[in-house]
Each structure stands twice: as C-alpha cells, then as structure tokens.
Design a protein that fits this description.
By secondary structure, this protein is α+β, with helices and mostly antiparallel strands. It contains 2 helices and 6 strands; from the N terminus they run E-H-E-E-E-E-H-E. The relative contact order is 0.34.
Amino acid sequence: MWKGKTVKLIIATIKPFKLEEVREALTEIGVRGMMVTEIKGFGSQSGHTEIYRGAEYAVNFVPKIKLEIAVATEMADQVVETITNTAKTGKIGDGKIFVLDVQQAVRVRTGETNADAL
C-alpha cells in the first residue's frame, strides 16, 4: 500500500489567451507545476462562425488549452476556484474543469509518492 496524502488531478480547458493569466494566478496560490497542451475541441458552441486572427470561418473545432494539474486533495477546491475566476470571460467557450482522484503518484527521480511526489 502506498503512503502519503491523497492527490487530485485537475483537468481544465481554457481559452488560449487566458493561459498566462491563469498560470500566474495558480503560481500565486502555491501550484508548483502543471502540464499544458494545445488542443482543439467543441462543446455547446459547435457549428458557429468565429473570427480568428482576422478571418471569419465556420468552426468545427475551437483552439483551446488543456491544463493538467496534480495537487494535494486539500488544495483542489482552491485551484478550481482560481481557474474559474481567472479564465472566465462570461462568453460561450470559457471551458470546463474536471477533478479526478489519483490512485498513486510517484516522483521517478526519488521514489517519493503521492503529495510528496508533487
């Protein structure tokens, strides 16, 4: 059985121009790392036209940023609140946040587990 505090994985999709603002806000509350991926997706805004880099076109998939952040369970609510408050524009397509339980986390270099591995 592994030991240490439990961990949550927060997966958030946000608008690309909000990335730096969200990163700064998360750093301020003590988040020490995250994984960032450029993705494309759609939700309730599918099938509309959008202006992107000065050109209007029909959108099937919208550019988004996916953040993956592993944090100690007791920090998860604060991270979700920070992302929500910072990424919100009030317009369709602001994104989604999912919080998952992590069964185990291991730091490869040291063998530390769970919250200690973060």
